[in-house]
Amino acid sequence: MYFPLQGLISSFRLLDIIDILLVAFVLYKLYYLIYNTRAVALIKGLLVLGIVTVVSKVLDLHVINWLLQQGMTVILVALPVVFQPELRRALEQIGRGHLFRSGQVINAEELEHLVDEVVAVTESLSKTRTGALLVFEREVGLNDYIDTGIFIQGIVSRELLGNIFIPNTPLHDGAVIIRENEIMAAGCLLPLTSDRSLSTELGTRHRAAIGISEITDAVVVVVSEETGAISYTYGGHIYRHLEAKSLHKVLLNFLRPAPQGLVNILKWRPLK
Fold first, then answer.
1. Which of 53, 139, 166, 174 is most buried, judging by how many CB atoms fall within 10 Å of its CB?
2. CATH of 108-255, one of 3.40.1700.10, 3.30.420.100, 3.20.20.450, 3.40.50.300
3. Domain locations in the chain?
4. Do 193 and 182 form a contact (C-beta atoms < 8 A)?
5. What is the pLDDT of residues 107-145, one digit of tens each?
6. Is the pLDDT of residue 155 over 80?
7. pLDDT tens digits for 206-264?
8. What strands, in cross-sheet order, belong to the sheet with 132-136?
9. SS3 per residue for 10-49
10. Are 216 and 145 in contact (CB under 8 A)?
11. According to the model, what pLDDT value does residue 105 have?
């Protein structure tokens, strides 16, 4: 018996295989370029809309299908505008040769060292009532905010963080953004929360920490300049007056790499 698949396989040439591998490699690298930006969440949303559109067509839901098709048309037209920052960054990175870079994921020993250094400098800043704002990137990328600061890309250490937050220096008032065990940038600008129910005791640092946690999954550590109190924000909520042991536990819980598997397939991101 003849199967069409056999004919398809027999007609494959070496160049066809190379062609497929090159396309797969380019798609992987393109995803790598945008995975640490908000574009990934938008792409996932488009995929969900596409699946719903197909399902509505199969089930003959004509009105819903028509509305979804019209909506998809409008979205596709708007994509170049929505993705303008990501497209510009991707082209810049391709031009600089970043498309072919590889990287590594932080391991348990590096994570423990990272948390120890952060807790140590946070305690020191708290004692001297030196304001600080540290943002830890997780699944949702923060490149848009990294671009607003001074690029550093240095390994996290208590000495480097302490120098960054020295009062009356250019980087003191901005946020430090940390990706895995690297300080990506300092002096970064963050969006302020619009929540008017917050206590008037919370200043700009705390409102910026809450603001970035409302629109991303970042965990943010804040040291108050007025009281020296240590707080952290996540999911738009602030948790105040932490001790060193509590902060250590919080950071380990949030920053520990998630296990890879079928249940995490939608959260997977490539190595960097």
1. 174
2. 3.40.1700.10
3. 13-96, 108-255
4. no
5. 888 899 999 999 999 999 999 999 999 999 988 778 889
6. yes
7. 999 999 998 888 999 999 999 999 999 998 899 999 999 999 999 999 998 765 443 44
8. 150-155, 182-188, 175-179, 132-136, 219-223, 230-234, 237-239
9. HCCCHHHHHHHHHHHHHHHHHHHHHCCCCHHHHHHHHHHH
10. no
11. 65
Give the Cα separation of 233 and 222 in Å (integer): 8
Percent residues over pLDDT 90 in the chain: 40
Nearest-CA neighbor of 135 among 108, 170, 113, 161?
161
* Strand (E) or helix (H) holding 75: helix 62-82
User: DSSP string spanning 190-229?
Assistant: -PPP--TTS-TT--HHHHHHHHHHHHS--EEEEE-TTT--
Token pair of 77 as six digits: 């037209």
CA dihedral 87, 148, 201, 123 (to 10 degrees): 110
pLDDT, average across residues 36-43: 65
Q: Where are the beta strands (DSSP E) in 48-149?
A: 132-136
- Give per-residue burial for 246-255: e unless 16+ CB within 10 Å, then b: ebbebbeeeb
Phi-psi sector, 39: left (phi>0), alpha (psi -120 to 50), beta: alpha
* SS3 category, 134: strand
Mean local confidence (pLDDT), 27-31: 73
